[in-house]
Design goal:
By secondary structure, this protein is of the alpha+beta class. 23% of the residues lie in helices and 21% in strands. The strands form three sheets. The protein has a five-stranded mixed β-sheet with strand order 2-9-5-4-3, with helices on one face. A four-stranded antiparallel β-sheet has the order 1-7-8-6, with helices on one face. The structure holds zinc ion.
Length: 284
């Protein structure tokens, strides 16, 4: 099964949907009991999650693909879904699914917060007060200005597709939404990131926001494992323009979608809507 492991990776819209569905059920509740923990899922190694017991949740938010649960003590529980992670609230009598690594009881009969991750590329970090868990990632795509994107892209001559996947340049975009945004913008994925014109950067900035907002409205893309905080699947996978559509007709021009591999990642694009870049010689 080609590329399944990368195609099920939750990206910004999926993580945002998890945060939005968990928020109303989690904020203001206390963790009353640590029911179950697979210790090697927790970082730093040896951290004692028992300190969570009795702590109220102040806020849950997203930064890039990261879920951050702020506690009244000032500590933050940071959860990364990796490729197959699920963070849900369930009733205590719901059967425990295989690969469930963390279960925390919530006050007021609000159920249990459960984290499961069959492939274990995700994890749970306990961050001390003052650490936000986002020092190593780039700006948020939904609130970035075109000038910020231009600055990030000017730092690399790699292809625009590969640059968009680099979390240090821009936080939250993965394979699905990079391919989708490039199709909307009419940009060939091999275009060098630092060779985009200011107009192309402005257009790309707009298209990234557009596809991410639309995907959030459709509660993300469910390809295999992804579910929201209530355990429900997303619906945006039905609306993908190019992602995972190799050999199928472009929804806009009927040209068959091509697939290439860039930096080990599948990349789908329409050769007509996204013509190969004609580059002038680089000025030295
Ligand atoms: Zn097309």
């Amino acid at each position: 099964m080609r590329d399944r492991k990368e195609s099920c990776m939750p990206e910004l819209p999926e993580v945002e949907t998890v945060v939005r569905t968990l928020g109303p059920k989690l904020v203001g509740r206390r963790f009353t009991r640590l029911v179950h923990l697979r210790p090697d899922m927790l970082q730093p190694a040896g951290a004692d999650l028992a300190v969570l017991t009795g702590q109220a949740v102040r806020r849950i938010h997203r930064r890039g693909k990261r879920i951050l649960i702020q506690l009244e003590s000032g500590s933050t529980l940071y959860i990364h879904l990796g490729m197959t992670g699920q963070l849900t609230i369930e009733t205590p009598d719901a059967p425990t699914k295989p690969h469930t690594h963390l279960i925390l009881d919530l006050s007021g009969d609000a159920g249990q917060l459960r984290f499961r991750d069959p492939r274990r590329f995700g994890g749970v970090w306990l961050l001390p007060p003052g650490q936000m868990g986002d020092h190593d990632i780039g700006p948020e795509p939904l609130s970035m200005r075109a000038a910020q994107l231009a600055k990030a892209l000017s730092r690399t001559s790699r292809s625009i597709k590969v640059a968009l996947l680099d979390q240090r340049l821009l936080a939250g975009i993965g394979n699905i939404y990079a391919d989708e945004a490039l199709h909307i913008a009419g940009l060939h994925p091999l275009t060098p990131a630092d060779r985009l014109s200011p107009e192309q950067v402005r257009l790309l900035c707009h298209c990234i926001k557009r596809v991410l907002r639309r995907a959030i409205r459709h509660r993300g893309s469910s390809l295999r494992d992804y579910v929201d905080g209530n355990g429900a699947s997303g619906g945006f996978q039905k609306l993908h323009r190019v992602y995972d559509r190799e050999g199928q007709p472009c929804r806009y021009c009927d040209t068959l979608i091509h697939r290439i591999v860039l930096a080990g990642r599948s990349t789908c694009f329409c050769p007509r809507c996204q013509p190969a870049p004609r580059l002038k010689a680089r000025v030295r």
